[in-house]
Amino acid sequence: MSTGLPLITTADRRHRLGRRHRLAPSARAATPGQAADAVVALHATDAATVHLSARARLTEGGPAAIEAALYEDISLVRLLSMRNTLFAVSTELAPYVDASCARSIAAKERRSLLKHLAEDGQGLDAEWLARAENAALDALDTLGPSTGSQLSAAVPALRQKITINRGKKYEAETGVATRVIRVLAAEGRIRRDRPRGSWTSSQFRWVHTEPWPALPAAEARAELARRWLYAYGPATEADLKWWTGWTLTDVRKALAAVAPAQVRLEDGGTALVLPGDTAAEPAPEPWAAFLPGLDPSGMGWADRGFHLDPAHRPALFDYAGNIGPTVWWNGEIVGGWAQRADGEIVWRLLADPGRAAAEAVTAEAARLAEWVGDARITPRFRTPLERELTA
């Protein structure tokens, strides 16, 4: 029976989101690393998302401040991690993300590449791959930050072509450079440096770096689960499994190590929070936010019913379940936004949240437009409403 459990209301959950995700103005972060830690990790599949997600959570600073965190003081790094997806995390959290998620992904990437090499039939094996990797690292030491094309020009082995899926309809010849670079990056032996072009570009340069310190995987999963519960609780076992991509066994072991408390939700269900984290959350001041596609606040749960009207989902998500740019009011998604080719920020509210909300949304749109300046943003995963607004 759940009747004796503490109740966390939908309003409490929205208050938590505003404060803990640092979206309410009084809760905004001083640094990009703090902004990332607030939501555990920033989605980084789309280069612009990291910057726009951090922007929404920072007290001040333009794109250059986020670039400095990524490429100068290295307080923020991109890792192929949860759900085999690229995220940006603080360097303080990175070893835990590496041990709990990235390390197993890297092992799979290496096995997959070795399988393709073996099936190609040219005698390319683990020894050949090791030599190619060492040559690529030596080239980075000599050249400094380099693109994949520059590395291929400097390392003959990276120009090697192999045939994958031989004998099948989708047989294809491909170069090994991208796959070798992906393995090295997954293992933390290289990392993404400044892209060619602006902060919206995904054509990264690469630099040689040292792998993260080895941590016990179980310890790392427990720490990641603890941080996730603080940022996203109340949440369920299913939410954590979806967010991490872990097996159900690993999810349950991590939660057992955290020993979360159970709470009751307004819809009659139950969820988990950190031990002792059951008190009602004071309401922050009213706040509006313009969040980019794939922002963690929209993607942090498998079940998003507490902050998203199901009727609005078709307009705001693509066919694969990726959320597009969204407009928020006090912890609830109330619309979507886009940037037109001439740079204008446009938006549409899918409900009527009232006059105060409309005024706050207009002011936040102006703040976003000033921050973006001359840059142009086209989400990698386009949604129906975003396409309509830019048509």
Residue runs with pLDDT of under 50 for 5 or more positions: none
Tally of helical segments:
15
Structural class label: alpha+beta
Strand percentage: 15-25%
Strand line-up in the sheet with most strands:
11-12-13-14
- C-alpha geometry: globular
Number of strands: 14
Helix content: 40-55%
Query: How far apart lie the N and C ends?
Result: 52 Å
What characterizes the major β-sheet?
4 strands, antiparallel
Q: Gyration radius, to the nearest Å?
A: 22 Å
Order of helices and strands: EHHEHHEEHHHEEHEEHHHEEEHHEEEHH
* Mean pLDDT over the full residue set: 95
InterPro entries: AlkZ-like (IPR009351)
Notes on the structure:
InterPro entries: AlkZ-like. It holds the Pfam family AlkZ-like. It contains 15 helices and 14 strands. The protein has 391 residues and is α+β, with helices and mostly antiparallel strands. The chain has a domain at 288-390.
How would you sum up this structure in a few lines?
By secondary structure, the chain is of the alpha+beta class. The protein has 15 helices and 14 strands. It has a domain at 288-390.
